[in-house]
Specification:
homodimer; alpha/beta; eight-stranded parallel sheet; 14 helices; globular
């Protein structure tokens, strides 16, 4: 047990990210049942739909295993989403974007564990100062909305670990047990994993999204729309248009018009390869199958043990 | 011993990168004497100066410890640089940019070990097919000239490890023992370290360069000049101009004019903060002192052992 498994009351220090349009109650419950921490991704849900997903997750887990909800604080209705979670007695919340201190007093009062997602050292320190229980430090490898400073996992994790006292969960580019071991070597006490869980049986992402992840290589993602909030996504016709706009220095207004609305839904949920935004992390090139979530969790643990055994064998032969 | 320590005949699987203007014979010899592999960076040297540095390194090492030379193959006089190395009986060459197979037959004939630096899976496979003995896979965190695909270390290393049979050396963002352990967890068998060695006593970088590295944080580097060959450098007035040009989509011609000539020398060697290019990696934020190279190598090994002990303690308490 480390501080992260203790904080959540879970067996393995693995968190399934609350990916928009992919992380509903089915994925969340399957992951939590397997001994990791499942999160419902509220980013794609209205308050009433979130309530439904929370209730279904609770029913599936029969109040045995802990689970959580991810809430992007920049949402106009963030207050309502938070209220739903409080009303439903959700005990673990992951917040991203926005001010990490906005709801902390309420969360403390209601004994809710709160974790904030940060992309840089300064924002990690700010989150700690505002009273969150842990931070996810998310490298620029991660799919979806990323930090403007474009700091990769390998250099972000150790700098955040050195800068804060609260436990650090690594995210961005982690898809297998080698990655979890590497994150731990860098000083993290847990790993949040997104795209790998979006490509599972229980993920609500469209089959075309899952197939696109399987086909991805090391060069299959595009990082663009920097002027309006950068996004990492699979290289499809829409992403190519974004990359072109980036290259010719398109203005904020132009990028906003290009992006339009509902791109994540059109991509991840509806599977429109031409027009959708297929948010995915750079670890996609390491994903080659579509297991169910329980098998995936067991495999991650096994791969972690293998990586540690390999490391230890190398050390022993050095001495 | 692993395949990398065997390949070079070194004690620790640590390679000091051949950083332009920082890695002369003094740094190279000090690192090799300490049991890692020192490299002379030929990128900033004319053939006659390279010859002088090789001779001084040989004299300093008295033919005891192995050392190598890094040659950027895009140099117009790459043939001459290679010839100097062959004439001086240098037994380890690291090549970067250009065609990795250009000199391989000659190197094989002369029993020279050759390692090529690659930024992507396809280029790693190509280097293997052309007969190199190992690859350095260099993540986009690395200082100086980087690959156009901007693939970070955390996701590049495991994909290259899965794609080739030859041993893989990780580079980009590695500055301490935690980083070496993480690189090994990802499947690498060695770590190439640049900026950390550029900030040592024996480095020939300007004191102002070394001080700038010490002051760096997680957000202190700029990645720019994408249209003419991307470079990662510390954020100084010159780098800010490059970032602005990038943001407004400046053309290839404009970027070329902005870059001009001799920027690395003006920055790294002459220490001109306004006009120079201070090439440095994203690990700079983790560098807080200017040790000598031998102490640094010993510290890296100690930190690696500490990271492994911490990892193993965590695993044991999980069981």
């Amino acid at each position: 047990m480390n501080r992260i498994t203790n904080l959540f009351g879970i067996r393995w220090p693995i968190i399934q990210a609350g990916i928009v349009w992919a992380a509903g109650w089915e994925l969340c419950a399957a992951v939590s049942k397997a001994g990791a921490l499942g999160l419902i991704g509220a980013g794609s849900m209205k308050p009433d739909l979130l309530q439904l997903h929370i209730r279904k997750a609770k029913a599936a887990l029969q109040n045995q295993e802990p689970f959580g909800v991810n809430i992007p604080l920049q949402r106009g209705d963030a207050d309502e989403l938070v209220q739903v979670c409080l009303d439903e007695n959700v005990k673990i919340l992951f917040t991203s974007a926005g001010n990490p201190g906005r709801f902390t007093p309420t969360f403390k009062e209601r004994e809710v564990t709160v974790v904030h997602v940060v992309p840089s050292v300064v924002l990690a320190q700010e989150a700690e100062a505002r009273g969150v229980d842990a931070v996810v430090c998310e490298g620029t490898e991660a799919g979806g909305h990323d930090g403007v400073d474009e700091i990769p996992t390998f250099v972000l994790v150790p700098q955040v670990v050195d800068a804060v006292k609260i436990p650090v969960i690594a995210a961005g580019g982690i898809v297998n047990g080698r990655g979890i071991a590497a994150a731990m070597a860098l000083g993290a006490e847990g790993a949040q994993i997104g795209t790998r869980f979006a490509a599972t049986v229980e993920s609500s992402a469209h089959p075309r999204y899952k197939q696109a992840v399987l086909k991805a290589t090391d060069t299959s993602t595009v990082f663009a729309l920097r002027k309006i909030g950068p996004v990492r996504m699979l290289r499809n016709p829409f992403a190519e248009r974004c990359a072109d706009a980036e290259s010719r220095g398109a203005s904020e207004e132009e990028q906003q018009a290009l992006r339009g609305e509902h791109r994540e839904r059109i991509g991840i949920f509806e599977g429109d390869w031409e027009e959708g935004m297929f948010e995915a992390g750079m670890g996609a090139g390491l994903i080659h199958d579509l297991p169910n979530a329980a098998d995936l969790v067991a495999r991650l643990v096994r791969e972690y043990d293998d990586a540690m055994a390999r490391l230890n064998a190398a050390v022993n032969t050095l001495k």
